[in-house]
Specification:
elongated; 2 domains; alpha/beta; six-stranded mixed β-sheet; about 25% strand; 8 helices; about 290 residues; two-stranded antiparallel sheet
């Protein structure tokens, strides 16, 4: 996309996502990601049923009557968008690539966050962290985040989720909200996934193009791995060959889902040829129902 196309796309994304946030997502987001810290508010007289451990012994000793410390929940959170910009995300069998879908999803989440007065940050990664935007508030900042995703030109081809999450743990305070948006076409990130999920509220958004799940009958085709450059020739006229390809990808997808479950990481699975709003809303409502 040229600069003019990108600016038009940013405007379209803002209009579309603001409408969704106003009608659905702001409330769903707030119900799931309540403030996870507490701050001191005031002291008040002890009442039957109050936790003994909340008694303020200094005030109690001074007044001769039991008082407790009252706390309130902190609303403000930090959301970090960790976006995979490796070569495989530039693929798309529909007009939009996985990277463009990632930008739209990131925008929807970011506008939901600032509507609730939370901060939003961005990490773009390949096999290293290539771009970092510190968390801030406000519409102008969110538009900058969206623009950075759409304009971003990666220097590397590969994917290293472990490195990206380790960076997150270094730059963020615990209990932040982290959305990891990737097609997860890599391995070896399970340990770091588990470590990061213990520090933060980590949600994986897994992107898949329909042609990565199944092939049409179009004769001989050459498939190239965008990250390694390796090529494979497949005869899609063979029903057996197409079925083997489909089953292979189903196994890979099942293994990925198992990794998320084993490490207690919530995951949202998005097909680029299907509306991404439905799986996002389903996630928010299911998570809110869990409490």
């Amino acid at each position: 996309m040229n600069e003019k196309d990108i600016l038009k796309k940013i405007q379209r994304i803002e209009i579309f996502t603001n409408r969704l946030v106003s009608t659905v997502f702001a409330g769903e987001y707030e119900s799931v990601f309540k403030g996870q810290g507490i701050t001191f508010d005031e002291v008040r007289e002890y009442q039957a049923g109050d936790e003994i451990r909340t008694i303020d012994w200094n005030v109690t000793a001074r007044t001769g009557q039991a008082y407790i410390k009252k706390y309130v929940e902190e609303r403000e959170l930090v959301m970090m968008l960790v976006v995979d910009m490796s070569a495989s995300t530039s693929f798309g069998s529909i007009p939009e690539t996985k990277a463009e879908i990632a930008a739209e999803i990131a925008a929807l989440l970011a506008f939901s966050a600032i509507r609730n007065n939370d901060k939003v940050g961005l990490i773009c990664f390949t096999d290293t962290v290539e771009h970092f935007v510190a968390p801030r508030k406000g519409r102008r900042h969110v538009l900058r985040v969206i623009r950075d995703i759409l304009y971003f030109q990666p220097k590397q081809q590969g994917t290293n989720i472990e490195t990206a999450l380790a960076f997150v743990d270094r730059v963020l305070k615990p209990h932040s909200v982290v959305f990891l948006i990737s097609d997860f076409k890599t391995t070896g990130y399970e340990k770091q996934l588990r470590l990061s999920s213990k520090q933060h509220s980590l949600i994986a958004i897994s992107l898949q193009d329909r042609r990565e799940a199944e092939l049409p009958d179009v004769g001989l085709i050459e498939l190239e791995d965008a990250e390694t450059g390796e090529t494979t020739v497949i005869d899609t006229r063979s029903e057996e060959g197409r079925q083997l390809y489909k089953e292979l990808n189903q196994r890979v997808e099942a293994e990925r889902r198992q990794i998320f479950r084993a490490n207690q990481v919530d995951a949202i699975h998005v097909r680029t040829d299907e509306p991404y709003v439905k799986p996002l809303i389903r996630f928010f409502r299911q998570r809110a129902a869990k409490g």
